[in-house]
Amino acid sequence: MRKASSISALLFLGFVRSPSSKLRFNALRSYCDRTSPSSIKVPGPLTQYKSLVEQGKLQHDPNQEAVAFQLEKLLGRLEQYEKEMAEYHERLAKWSKERENERRRLLMEEAESQQKDDVWTSVTNQRNKFVQRWFSRKKPENVEPGVGKWVSYLNRERKLDSVVGRRPTAPPAPKGLYIYGNVGSGKTMLMDMFYSATEGIVKHRKRYHFHEAMLKINEQMHQIWKNQVEEKSLHSSLSNWVMNLPFDSRVKEWVAAEERYKQEVQMKNILPAVADKFIIDWQADQKGGSILCFDEIQTVDVFAIVALSGIVSRLLSNGTVLVATSNRAPKDLNQDGMQREIFQKFVNKMGEHCENVLIGSEIDYRRVLAQSQRSMGQVHYFWPSDSIALEKFEKKWHEVTNQVGGQITSSTIRVMFGRTLEVPESSNGVARFTFEYLCGRPVGAADYIAVAENYHTVFISGIPMMSMRIRDKARRFITLVDELYNHHCRLFCSAASSIDELFQGTEEGALFDLESFQFETETEGSKLRRDVLAEGSVSSGGAPTGIVSMLSGQEEMFAFRRAVSRLIEMQTPVYLEGVHSLHPYFQRQRREFENISAGNIQPQLAF
């Protein structure tokens, strides 16, 4: 029975070729952890786009084709860029090693001087105690602690610059693209076509949605602060060489203090440290170029502006190629005027390194796609909440869980910041939740990312029409839809209304501030939400005590229009065909089968 269920699961997942089907890879969407066999070369974005138009899966749009053409040109420049960046990283590694060796040599010279001064000072103190007391009495009382170390640190850095030279400059990278336009105009689709085509060309590649990026920044900042407090890196690095120096304990303490101060100076400027780990896996070879594909750039609060400015600017300065999407042009991102100076530097930096490209179409192509490619017999959105629709929803749940051939159980999945989330019902990559469970509690993007990464198919029941009374739940639901869409999940819904009416409001009023759920300036007790995220804690119950919206009505419109548009696209055949090849769950399974030739998959290799 186990073997039979395993075979049915494999057929459902698309890894066994049945006589009447072919293993298909949809090029519409791809993600940073997408891994395909090295022998398969993904065509460029323009080729992908034209192919989908020829197949009738996309309606031709001159604006989209123009952007695909520009992305294709950028792709053509990446091979030479990768070689130049590999050579640059070799120079950088050599420079870093020489600088560290020279820095330690200078430190040893200063330590020897300290040792001699200590001997001389000991004799002098015995002979001239009166003079010593006089000088100590004349010492200024308002000198800030650490000024001496700061001067010493700066002098040492200047000497290093003169001896070893300044940090090598990264070669000029090809200009990236900042693609902006209306909801459903094809921004994300085109960016993902480009991203999939860079595999095997550029070594270091990452693709983030806004929520995921902000959470990763918070997580890495939290980890750096944690390491700083615990001084793990300090003890591991200092104990190996400082304590073995040929000096007395007092001089060793001085050397340790100088090293500690250097690390403290570096830690104070935390965003560059986060940026350096944002794309490149530091356990792997660091040589080569880097690409960041950033979906839905937003500036919903001060933290987002400061974090994005510091990290993206650092990456661009170090040669990273940026391809980003947004609903707005860069200059219009910060309509509330928060941190104007920092924001303007950010915009200027992006202007230097990216071409701004408008997709000028007013058409929501997700709707066009849904109308032209209705999935016959494949209903995924059940409404209204009557007995007939609920019965069909239950029938679909049993049908899908029988297809994957697993037992329905409760489980626990890991969430960022060391937290966990209980999953009431799940089976072989399929999970079921109620709306209240996912959106009626103090959870957020981190939890939704965990769900999306672990489950390729998600059932959600009891979705109500959104109103002012459940505004926070509406925000959470929009964030949930974003993450399920970004990870290419298959979604089944049981709702009180049609998709188009879901966010229209009720007699209680319309909806507001939908864009800002996860990272708005919202307090939980006395802490800002971003502080709570950085500390990795979530309140155990109760709703947030206060909300300060920082967004205009236009942003609210973008938020619920995007959610409606994505819910519509998630019902289409072209989206559903991509689930088997693009969802992280299947990608993990595919990696396990990479060394097994097609058609020789053994039945006992179950999921």
Describe what this molecule looks like in 3D:
The protein is α/β, with parallel strands linked by helices and 607 residues long. Among the domains are: 62-83 and 170-359, Rossmann fold; 373-527 and 545-598, no CATH class. It is built from 22 helices and 14 strands. The protein has helices spanning 2-13, 45-54, 62-76, 78-127, 129-138, 147-163, 187-197, 210-230, 232-238, 249-268, 270-276, 302-317, 340-353, 365-372, 387-404, 435-439, 445-454, 471-486, 529-535, 553-569, 573-582, 584-592; strands at residues 176-181, 204-209, 290-295, 321-326, 354-359, 381-382, 409-414, 420-427, 430-434, 457-463, 490-495, 521-524, 527-528, 546-548. The strands form three sheets. A six-stranded mixed beta sheet has the order 6-11-10-9-8-7. It has a five-stranded parallel beta sheet with strand order 2-3-4-1-5. Helix 12 (302-317) links the parallel strand 3 and strand 4. It starts with a helix and ends in a 15-residue tail after the last helix. 38% of the residues are buried. Mean pLDDT is 76; it is low at 1-38, 137-146, 512-553 and 601-607. Pfam families: AFG1_ATPase (PF03969). This is Lactation elevated protein 1. Keywords: ATP-binding, Coiled coil, Nucleotide-binding.
